[in-house]
Amino acid sequence: MPHRRVAPGERRGRRSGDPLENRIVCEGFRGTWWRLDPPPLERRTVVLADGQLDALTAARAHLGNPGELLVVARERVDETLYKELRRFSEGRPARPGRIWLTTSGSAGRPRLLAHTLSSLTTLAAPPAPHRWLLPYSPGTYAWWQLVALSLAFPGQDLVTAPGPRPDQWLPVALAEGVDAVSATPSFWRLALASADPGLAEFRPRQITLGGEPVDQPLLDRLRGVFPSARVTWIYASTEAGACVVVHDGKAGFPVEWLERTDSTKPGLRVRDGQLYVRPVHGADGVPEWIATSDRAEFVGGRVVLSGRLGQDQLNVGGLRLSAGQVRDVLLAHPDVHWARVFARTAPFVGSVVAAEVVSDASEGELVSWCTNRLPGHAVPRFFTALDTVPLTTTLKSHLNKAARRNG
């Protein structure tokens, strides 16, 4: 793979103003900047990336070339997806400039959707220079948003994370001067639960959350640990692109944003408890209005997203309740770092509420906490303590997965 080595510490990109000179620090090459000059992509290219360097090389090569590109981490490719990728690479004539993404599969089987660098670059004006941690799996929507940002604007450097655990990424972030992190709420729950001493030394100026619902306690904790950081929540999907961007440190978004008529901004509406969006940065061929399958609730002048429809509802003794609401009560406890709520089968009543938690509180303390804040049938009867926050390859933890387990 052709490349040119740049001396460690040499500044690239901020003098010339060329975004292609932005610095990239990849695992295996830490301490040395690499400017990559790969061969052009002329047709349709599928890259099964074994690491960030493979993926970033392909993204850099795509810029200014007429072909189509699909990047996916090899670890995410099972036999079924591999067959779909083969069909994709051998299919119809290529469309210029298309970037194909695989959805996360959180709402079912992963799908292939087409974007462009323009639809992935959602900022209208150049942002302040940042050195971003890049923790996401190659080829995902969140990964492409950061890569597109770096390709589009000067001064947006990328530092790849060796892994999602704080003992993996924090030393790299501190050594390389990372001052901005885009990641999921679960990523940050894992970091805060670890109590890693490196967190006290880390001074980000920007923290961006996306990919999952975010609750007020997590936002408050991030502000407390990183008081100098601007904390942003983004609601986005591979299909719809970025639709909501909130900087005010409050969960959800203002109800005044619903039913906006400005066609230059994404449209938002709630119908039957479900959020609908009208994208302006969406993938090719999406409908004008997209049903997101995300549950929307009105809380104190805000629209709060609590979980996925169909995965959030539990039936306990014939009474329906929201797993997300129970989870939010648990997460409001100062010693609970992460929680997942689901129904567990039980004699006579059919099912009861159960929870998995990463917590420093005892089971008795959690039962008492929930009893004072929830109706009796919604109080978890079984708790399972986990040592760490479980993350998927997309940095999510399926918080609303309502699993049924035999007692």
From TrEMBL:
It holds the Pfam family AMP-binding. The keyword Ligase applies. InterPro entries: AMP-bd_C, AMP-bd_C_sf, AMP-dep_synth/lig_dom, ANL_N_sf. Keywords: Ligase. SUPFAM superfamilies: Acetyl-CoA synthetase-like (SSF56801). GO terms for molecular function: medium-chain fatty acid-CoA ligase activity. The keyword Manganese does not apply. GO terms for biological process: fatty acid metabolic process. Gene3D superfamilies: 3.30.300.30, N-terminal domain of ligase-like (3.40.50.12780). Belongs to the ATP-dependent AMP-binding enzyme family. This is Acyl-CoA synthetase. It comes from Streptomyces acidiscabies.
